[in-house]
């Protein structure tokens, strides 16, 4: 027991320590631009405009309203995701789901699938008010143009996918739990490794369920050639045939681009909204950022970090579930770990952990996003007239499209930001000049 606790704590510490270490490697040019951005943010009022990214008075007021609503929505959603499970357990609804599932059939597979079907549908119904409000908000602010019918179809697909994948995972988990009642969390961690790798490998195919794609070369030959230059500069080995345009404009007005999958599923995806709304050099800047994730091995680093985080999380889930079942199992009518109802108890542990670990995950993510910004600007140097202007312009376009408040409170960035605040990124892009005398680029030798 001692050893296990030690191993889990150690793996978690490695993850924690790797976050500040990323800052230790900051170059002089990067430091200067980071200081510039921090000073700009600190010297302007929170909720207002910044010199390097500002909105018109009307848009700023819309952005402030949207921001307040979104923060409230995140808080309500997080609290509700934990509270609804507590209520379902306390009111005996989970016990009832288990009874229905067990009556359906003597076969374990049917029981597991039935239990998780009821559990998923009830969860969907309980989350519906928040998701309906969220889509309504996106429509009102013009962030989404997706019809309610198409939105409902996407929800149905997600629930179907969640049910199939969830049932398979639950059957696997219950099998492992029967084999190793006291060490299931280690055994499940071991099997989760190939599952995680496989899911990232197939992730590009999931996109086909929701969006349409066409080859980038079909209508954007020149852009494809420019992107190819960035790809070649980073020795990424992605041929033109594996670059696609995603028809995001069918659903949203926001912009993006990414590098997905790995090995034979590796590909470049640019949203058509990005191409339609941004200047060509800004699209290249966005792509430069995305190629940074790829070249700097962020997918691989993310996978390794997730192994450590999952290890630690499963251990805590094991402890929490065991404690809750011992303490409340009789009240909830869920006698032990082998009962289908234990799925809800595990989910409750997972929701609590998710709440606690999200700020840590965001910190790791922000460090990677910042590195990708630095890489992106250096990668497009020499390929666009002015990398600083191109990246800053891209940030401003991204911010305007999603009504991002230019100067947000620092605590929001720390707790909720998967990316550094847009205002900070725009200011950094404006100031980052590693080609100036006395400085050197971080990832490419001086050209
Ligand atoms: Zn990114």
Explain how this protein is built:
- By secondary structure, the chain is mostly helical.
- The protein has one domain (2-431).
- It has helices spanning 2-24, 28-42, 57-90, 93-104, 108-140, 148-179, 184-210, 216-219, 221-233, 272-277, 280-295, 298-332, 342-379, 387-401, 410-416, 422-431; strands spanning 213-215, 243-246, 257-260, 267-271.
- The chain has a four-stranded mixed sheet, with helices on both faces.
- A hairpin with a 6-residue loop joins strand 3 (257-260) and strand 4 (267-271).
- Helix 3 packs antiparallel against helix 13 (342-379), helix 4 (93-104) crosses helix 5 and helix 13 runs antiparallel to helix 14 (387-401).
- The structure holds zinc ion (ZN).
- Zinc ion (ZN) is lined by residues 289, 293, 369, 372.
> Gap between N and C termini, in Å?
56 Å
Low-confidence stretches: 1-14
Structural class, by secondary structure, is: mainly alpha
Strand content: under 5%
In total, the number of strands is: 4
Provide the domain count. Answer: 1
Helical segment tally? 16
Bound molecules: zinc ion
Order of helices and strands: HHHHHHHEHHEEEHHHHHHH
List the SSEs and their pairings.
Blueprint: H1 2-24, H2 28-42, H3 57-90, H4 93-104, H5 108-140, H6 148-179, H7 184-210, E1 213-215, H8 216-219, H9 221-233, E2 243-246, E3 257-260, E4 267-271, H10 272-277, H11 280-295, H12 298-332, H13 342-379, H14 387-401, H15 410-416, H16 422-431
Helix pairs in contact: 1-12, 1-13, 2-16, 3-5, 3-13, 4-5, 5-6, 6-7, 7-12, 9-11, 11-13, 11-14, 12-13, 13-14, 14-16
Zinc ion binds next to helix 11 and helix 13.
């Amino acid at each position: 027991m001692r050893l296990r606790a030690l191993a889990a704590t150690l793996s978690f510490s490695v993850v924690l320590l790797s976050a500040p270490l990323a800052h230790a490697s900051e170059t002089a040019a990067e430091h200067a631009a980071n200081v510039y951005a921090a000073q700009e943010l600190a010297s302007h009022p929170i909720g207002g405009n910044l010199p390097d990214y500002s909105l018109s008075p009307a848009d700023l007021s819309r952005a402030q309203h949207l921001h307040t609503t979104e923060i409230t929505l995140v808080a309500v959603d997080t609290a509700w995701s934990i509270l609804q499970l507590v209520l379902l357990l306390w009111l005996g609804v989970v016990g009832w789901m288990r009874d229905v599932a067990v009556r359906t059939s003597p076969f374990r597979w049917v029981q597991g699938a039935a239990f998780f079907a009821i559990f998923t549908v009830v969860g969907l119904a309980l989350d519906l008010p928040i998701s309906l409000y969220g889509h309504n908000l996106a429509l009102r602010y013009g962030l989404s143009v997706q019809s309610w019918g198409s939105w409902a179809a996407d929800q149905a697909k997600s629930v179907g996918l969640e049910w199939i994948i969830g049932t398979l995972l639950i059957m696997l988990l219950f099998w492992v739990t029967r084999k190793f009642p006291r060490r299931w969390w280690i055994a499940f961690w071991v099997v989760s490794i190939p599952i995680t790798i496989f899911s990232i490998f197939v992730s590009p195919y999931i996109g086909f369920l929701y969006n349409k794609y066409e080859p980038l070369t079909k209508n954007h030959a020149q852009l494809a050639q420019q992107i190819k230059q960035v790809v070649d500069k980073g020795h990424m080995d992605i041929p033109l045939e594996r670059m696609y345009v995603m028809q995001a404009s069918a659903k949203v007005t926001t912009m993006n681009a990414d590098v997905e999958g790995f090995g034979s599923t590796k590909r470049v995806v640019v949203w058509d909204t990005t191409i339609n709304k941004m200047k060509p050099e800004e699209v290249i800047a966005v792509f430069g950022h995305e190629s940074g994730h790829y070249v700097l091995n962020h997918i691989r680093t993310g996978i390794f970090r997730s192994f450590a985080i999952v290890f630690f999380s499963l251990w805590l889930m094991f402890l929490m579930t065991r404690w809750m079942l011992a303490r409340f199992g009789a009240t909830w009518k869920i006698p032990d770990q082998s009962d289908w109802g234990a799925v809800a108890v595990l989910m409750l542990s997972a929701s609590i952990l998710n709440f606690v670990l999200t700020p840590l995950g965001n910190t790791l993510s922000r460090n990677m996003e910042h590195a990708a910004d630095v890489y992106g600007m250096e990668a497009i140097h020499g390929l666009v007239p002015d990398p600083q202007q191109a990246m800053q312009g891209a940030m401003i376009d991204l911010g305007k499209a999603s009504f991002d408040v230019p100067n947000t409170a620092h605590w929001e960035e720390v707790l909720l930001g998967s990316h550094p605040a847009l205002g900070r990124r725009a200011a950094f892009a404006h100031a980052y000049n590693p080609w100036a005398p006395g400085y050197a680029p971080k990832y490419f030798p001086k050209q």
